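Morning!

As promised:
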Amino acid sequence: MAAPGTLWLVALFVVPSYAILAVAFGDIDPILRTAAPHWNPVSWDFTAMRGVLDRVFFGDLRHVFVRTGLFALASLAGCCLIGYPVAYYVARSARRSRGALLALLVLPFWISYLMRMLAWVNLLQTDGYVNRVLGWTHLGSGSRNWLDGDWPTVVFGLIYGYIPFFILPLYAALERLDGRLIEASRDLGASKIWTFIRVTLPLSIPGLMAASVIIVLPMCGDYYTNTYLTGGSPRTEMVGNQIEFFLRGSSQPQTGAALVIILMIFLMVLMAYYLVTIARSQREGARA
Amino acid sequence: MGTTRRQFIGQTAGLGVLLGAGIPLLGACGGDDDEGGAVTDAIKDGLEPEAGPLRIFNYADYVNPDTVASFEEQYGVKVEITTFDVDAEAITKLANGSVEIDVHNSAAPNSLNRLIAGGILQPLNKSYLTNFDNLLPSFVDPWYDKGSKYTVPYTVFSSGIAYRNDRVDPAQVEEMGWDILWDPTYKGVTSILDDYREGISLALLRAGITDVNTTDKAQIEQAGADLSELVKTMNIKVNIEAYKDIPEGATDLAHTWSGDMLAGVWYMPEGTDASVLGWWYPSDGVGVVNNDCMTITANAKNPVLGHLWINHLLDTANAEENFGWNGYLPPIKGLDADYLIANEYAPENLRSAVLTNEIIDKGLRFEPLPVDADRLWEETWSKFTAG
């Protein structure tokens, strides 16, 4: 019974992860300067990893990691603020209109991520439609350079790019909520807001956690959102940009692979927290 | 632990090329297709072209589709183009066999020693290259491939400053030179090339250091510090978008390649004339000049077609047609500034972006760096881009 899951895990996680380890602790081809993975752990060389750890904890890469984390957190907050009401609205809307609403939510995402980011580059240009609308409505000066390497643009891009992946699992969780519990709360005199705070929100925490994990993991490795929306500003460089440089544009693939491992470890901590929270939530649910 | 044969070749590959002995030195290390050895035998004369398809490895949008179509029509074959973004990516993909390629259309001269020593390339048989004599004299026997044994140049370009002359005074650019990229007056509207060799060389040249292949740690680190200054004072952008950002006005000043500015003519917004484009290159000729090379892979399935493709691009008319589309100058006789301006390929105000023999001969070259120095350059660049 576990065979399909095991195969999935081996093919899509264990093997790629081991390949990253083999590159990170391997060597470079002395002639071509490409990765020369060491598949046998006995011959692993940790020199590159030590150098990268030194840069991550005590050097210039520390603020790249911090910046990436802050961008992911800010984007997650944005996704919660926008995505939760949307998911809630869709989950509570009439059954026959839900399909259409979900289709509308997903529709823009039939276009590739890169194409959508390039479209935003046009929209956000100084003479683009965003500035024109802001100018017409007097909500802004209409001359702001949104692509000037400022963090809000990157966070906006991340929110825009990942929000459907936040809404859909959250919708699934909210849609499964037992409506009788909400009715009971109202019958017992709780206001709509209080019912939301004391009943709906706590019950949707597992869905919220799952949605958060689903978007934060890829956000932390994202590099093209920053590349496209800032014109390549070092002020918004993310870990993914450094990984891309070392793995694709340099003669130090071990450094790139080491960065991948360090990022994975950070994200595993996040994942572990999610799993513990879910397990605790399920235990409490079972007791109730 | 002793030095392996492959490591020995790796350490001597760069030295061999730099000494101008390149291939003979590498060839002496072993036979054809030997591990770490160069392939030394070209295809035989007089072979019939293969049925194709011809598989070309190139940067995106770097060859005129009409030039490809005319080749397909002439030889009755299909051409398939696979693209890469950076030179290191191309080397990795060729080395690990993730792409099957006949012609590497844009190999960097400073990487050739590795591709040759790694047995990735095969020598050319010039009997198929009937247009070889069309090349500019400077490229008949280039420094990176003595005797043009493995390569033929595809394009040649310099690195300079592109600008909008309606926003930046040309006299000021002339006066300040590289320093203008550090002038806070242009904060937020300046960019530099996203290329570690180009970027660090820019800072070296600004500091008066003309050794763009330096291995001096202090010089490299100072160049990195000078670049980092750009992040705070200039809010610098690091990209390869000047070919459109300058014409569109998103950027006023850009450290970029001359070909980007010549191509930029085609990216002018409606109502804006190309006469607003400006180009600066050091008047003393001490700047970086680089070129891309066409070469045939050792495991090419269509080596004869590959030679014919290279010959196709060496044809003056085809080279002109290709230039008219991508803006990067083929080093072919007759395609000089006077001709290109007279035929409206380039505006008069970009005359200096069309390389002359003098600029080509005087230009500084990116040579292969030793492993440790290359790492230092890369790490310095990584620190700068980390902000």
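The longest helix of chain A spans residues 253-287.

Hope this helps with the figure draft.
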